[in-house]
Write a structure and sequence with these properties.
Two copies of one chain form a homodimer. In chain A, about 55% of the residues lie in helices and about 10% in strands. In chain A, helix 1 crosses helix 2, helix 4 runs parallel beside helix 5 and helix 6 packs parallel to helix 7. In chain A, strands 3-2-4-1-5-6-7 form a seven-stranded parallel β-sheet, sandwiched between helices. Chain A has 14 helices and seven strands. Chain A is α/β, with parallel strands linked by helices.
Chain lengths: ~325, ~325
């Protein structure tokens, strides 16, 4: 499929063209930057919601309920799952798949699970670009689901306008989440499975931990109790998400955040490009061979920098 | 204090000079690269052991016991703690501090807790350089302790010759550790507090998870059960650490790993230097202001790259 042809079909709303472009993002196809560059003016309309939290917190079930709710008010929805254990991927239990069926058959819902990358830089670029594609395709909401272990959730939060941290009532979970940096990134906290024993205590624990936090951009993250499987608390969560959006837009924060996101992306793009030009041929060989008689890594680094600047000076 | 004077005192074994240099690493003093460059030929003798795992697993207690054991065989030991809750820092409970006293008063033991940085790159550079300093100071063993949440433990593992993952018997801990990437980095697994209920089950769980792993460089990570508070299992752990060292040296793996570590460090040094030159003045302003009328981040990135290459072409 030619790039132009693919773009034409994408612009006409062909879901297979969107799927193809997402695969190209996943495979780091070299033509992706040019293709998204062309589509970029069509982005900026979708509202990007990130969902993160420990495995088993019920993120997918919650996302599933939110998608249904958004469909009731005729919003077009995209879902990107970066969780390898997500029911949105093939690896899920049959019961989960059946529950998801209603939304997976809806032509205005596009669900995509994407592979996570080893390096965080790689994942982040993928998230941004997948969101850009969903956005340019005309989605009103893009829901990003990621499992909250390691660094990926922090990267996903960076791509989202609103980040929702999903936890379950379990002793020490709030403390663990705090240490893992989840407290820093959550705009809204959900305590799912709140029909469990100990839910009230967990709610108080979480609320008190959050009280120690300073407001970010004038927003104090609320805690919403849900039982996603029974669709309980989901309306309240939707209202809270809407409150956050109103807060972001009325105070110019959304624009500020989006500009910071673009600035980060520019940085990544420039540095990736420089690195590709830097670490080739002799320089890459010298780097890989380590000291090779030099006194220290500092000495080798200086020699390689000099070599690179020299090459630039000689006009490529 | 002048740099040369400081180096002289460092070389004469003045502990305050080491402390001062470690503070300079922590504060990213601009003269640190030159200073470590000078000391670098004196490194390569210390064996670097990384300890990571969830909060409360008893890493500090274990490190404390190992330091005592190494002192019995007259090894000089350095300890670097990157854990803000570590008893090696001021924040610990009195009981912990008393237990540590024996080693903290020993003149051949140097203990230092260091602040963790927000960004992972920053932390990693700090670990390497702190280890290099301890190494050049004449330590035979450098024990690095880090809390196993987020990305920092993966970075620390990168700086260590042998990485020891410390877990406690708690249902699901092995699974959680696996998801957090700890399974990938452990050369040796310690199941501490093995006098607790459920320790045998946790041992079987951990062992079976590890069985799914492929050997790395011909080494299958063993699981050692300890009760660090009672000094139980510590001798077995010491033997296993020695086995790993023998394995690394006899098969040329230590050299290979250290060369890879140097290559990574060269990469970081070169890229950091380029980035400092790249993101200044107008270019940094343009990056921060985002699109500013451009079509996409890709267009801005290309313009900034062109501008940088142009500057290089004009000879600085």
């Amino acid at each position: 499929m030619q790039g132009n042809n693919l773009l034409e079909r994408f612009k006409q709303g062909d879901r297979r063209a969107l799927a193809r472009l997402l695969s190209m993002v996943e495979n780091r196809d070299v033509t992706i930057p040019d293709l998204i560059d062309t589509l970029y003016p069509n982005t900026g309309k979708a509202w990007r919601l990130g969902f993160t939290g420990p495995p088993g917190a019920g993120k997918s079930t919650l996302v599933n309920q939110l998608v249904k709710a958004y469909r009731k008010v005729e919003k077009k929805v995209g879902v990107i799952a970066f969780d390898p254990t997500s029911p949105f991927t093939g690896g899920a239990l049959l019961g989960d798949r059946v529950r998801m069926e209603q939304i997976t058959l809806d032509p205005e819902v596009f669900i995509r699970s994407m592979a996570t990358r080893g390096s965080m830089g790689g994942l982040a670029v993928g998230v941004d670009e997948a969101c850009d594609l969903m956005d340019a395709f005309g989605k009103d909401r893009v829901l990003i689901e990621t499992v909250g272990v390691g660094q990926s959730e922090l990267e996903v939060a960076h791509s989202a306008d609103t980040t929702i941290v999903v936890l379950v009532p379990q002793s020490g979970d709030a403390i663990q989440a705090m240490k893992a940096g989840l407290m820093e990134i959550g705009d809204i906290f959900v305590l799912n499975k709140s029909d469990r024993d100990g839910a009230d205590r967990a709610y108080r624990e979480l609320t008190s931990v959050l009280h120690m936090k300073e407001a970010v951009d004038g927003w104090y993250p609320p805690v919403i109790q849900t039982v996603a499987e029974q669709n309980k608390g989901v309306d309240e969560l939707l209202d809270t998400i809407q409150d956050h959006y109103t807060h972001l837009t009325e105070n110019g924060i959304l624009e500020k955040r989006r500009q910071e996101r673009i600035a980060s992306k520019i940085r990544r793009l420039v540095e990736d490009s420089l690195q590709r030009r830097l670490w080739v041929g002799d320089r890459e060989e010298r780097r890989k061979s380590g000291l090779s008689g030099a006194r220290s890594p500092y000495e080798v680094a200086q020699a390689l920098l000099d070599n690179f600047y020299q090459e630039m000076n000689n006009g490529e």
